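In this supplementary section we document a worked example of the pipeline. Step one takes a protein sequence of length 148 as its only input; no multiple sequence alignment statistics are reported here. Step two produces a three-dimensional model, which step three serialises into structure tokens for compact storage. The input and output of this example are shown verbatim.
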Amino acid sequence: MAEIKSKVTLIGAMLARPGLEFIYEGELPACEQCKVRKACNNLKVGRKYRVLSIRATVHGCSVHLNGACAVEIVESPMVGLIKADLAIANSRILPDLSCTQSECKSYPLCHPDGVVSGERYMVSEVLGNAPDHCDKGRSLKLVELLPI
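The serialised model returned by step three reads:
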């Protein structure tokens, strides 16, 4: 398996700590006039990231209290449920996010934070059976997904 490449971005200095996981939500209107906005907004909207390390560089920021801090990040794996027949380690899948039964106990794992509709992921590990049953009666497996 290929090693995950890290990249440098800027996040709020008060948030910056190793291990922090976050979902990038996109650029804010307040960022339009910022001279370092490209460094802050160099991530993919909806993706989940994890901070590996913090750099000493801090920039003034109209969005974040105490400025924006340079951090090294990687895309973070997501844990979710997929159809059992797709749960094969190292396979590439397109997660099915079509279920609308939000009252189902499995719904949050069928729609994990950081999984973007229409994008492909690699099943990095099959973790086991679904912790709860599916209201639609589907056979599901709990897996770890990595963006590709």
